User: What shape does this take?
Amino acid sequence: MSDRYTGQRRALIGTMQERGIRDLNVLRAFDEVRRHEFLPDAVRHRAYEDAPVPIGHGQTASQPSLQALYMQVLDLRRDDKVLEIGTGCGFQTAVLAKLVDRVYSVERIRELSIRSREKLDELRISNVALMVGDGTIGWSRYAPFDAILVAAAAPDVPQPLLDQLAPGGRMLIPVGGRDTQQLMLITREADGFSEREVTACTFVPLLGRFGWMDAPRA
Ligand code: SAH
Assistant: This one.
């Protein structure tokens, strides 16, 4: 269905392709979910820039091509059970819900989780479970997960998230300092974990028991 942003959305898909996104399922999912519907009114006109956008509470919706890279690198299958840490505005959650049957997403800021729930309900996206809490401890009730996407930057990989990865499961997590990080792909192998660096990146901090403990800098 087209809307006033359809042209801009198609242009963004083109930009994502130029930036290396080839997975057609991922591109289709980004075409189906309207990012502008998830953003606060004041920044809605920026929805189809390939850029992070402020969503309030000092947080940002991540850059679309980077979110798409996550999904492409994770090589998601329809029957994968996926855990997202950092629901934020719920846009990436909605895209994931188009790609896999079961999405679980944890957000520490209650207002963001509530808004995301309202939006997902409005769009009749029903295969997502949301929780307000500290995602650095994962969501043990639904573990193990085939894929874990961490949308905030950690000083180290939280041990509970490693523990909640299924055999063959993959996790993407930005690890490093407050200003820049390396996006790490961690895979649970038969005999332990393998890891590889995917790209340099900049995310808001992952705050919690196994993340950064102090308040974010102003
Ligand atoms: N995927 C989201 C990303 C939002 S930014 C989007 O595109 O909108 C990262 C989010 O992680 C923020 O909303 C922040 O509040 C949240 N976050 C930070 N630490 C967290 C933690 N320990 N548990 C859950 N969410 C956390």
Observations:
- The chain has one domain: 6-201.
- The longest helix spans residues 6-18.
- The longest strand covers residues 165-176.
